[in-house]
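Hmm, what's this shape?
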Amino acid sequence: MSHKTQGTRTPRRGGPFSRFVGRLLMRLMGWRISGAFPDLEKFVAIGAPHSSNFDFFIAMGTILSTGVRIHILGKHTLFKGPLAPIMRWCDILPVDRRSAHGVVGESVAAFKAAERLVIGIAPEGTRNPKPGAGWKTGFWHIARQAGVQIIPVSLDYTTRTVRIGDPVTPTDSMEADFSLLSAFYAGVQGAKRQLAATIPTSATRPAEPSGTSG
C-alpha cells in the first residue's frame, strides 16, 4: 500500500497522527491505496466513479493517509458566517459561479496565484448521471488553461482499491486526452455502477465542473 508522495513539493496537510488515522480508517473499511501522488506543486486530481455518499469517507481516508492537501470547489456563499472556519479547515476553495470568468476562470486564477495547489474534482458532476451523458469537461479546461497536469484516481469497489494513476498532460485534443483517461478507468466498478469503457465527449456539454460543494 502506498501512502506517500514522490517528494516534498506537493502541498501537504496534517502530520504523522492524521496519516495514522487515515490508514486506520482505510483498514477498517477494508480499502487500500495503490500508487502515489506525484511530486508536483500543482495539479488537478479527478476521482471517479462517484455513485455513493460512502465515496466521501474513502476520499477522506485517502487524503489523510497520503497527507496531500486537496482543495474541493465550493460556493463562495459557504464562507459567510459560522460555516467559514469549517469550510477553510475542510480545504474548500470558494468560487463564484456568477463571476464573469465562471468556475473555470476562477479556478485557473487560483492556480496562477498559488505557489502550490491541488484541486480535486468529480468529473461526472453528479452521483447519478444520465446514461451516455459523459463527463463534464471543466476539469480539462482548468488543467489546460492553468498549465497543470491531471491525476486520475479511481475508486474500485470490486477490489476495494483506490488507484492513483500517472499524470496526464492536456493536449490540443480533448478527445485524445479523454480516450487516454478512459483506458485508465475501463472496467472500474463503483458502488452502484460501472464506468463506460469510453468516456464520451461532446461540444455541447457544459464546460463548467458542476460537482462543487453546496
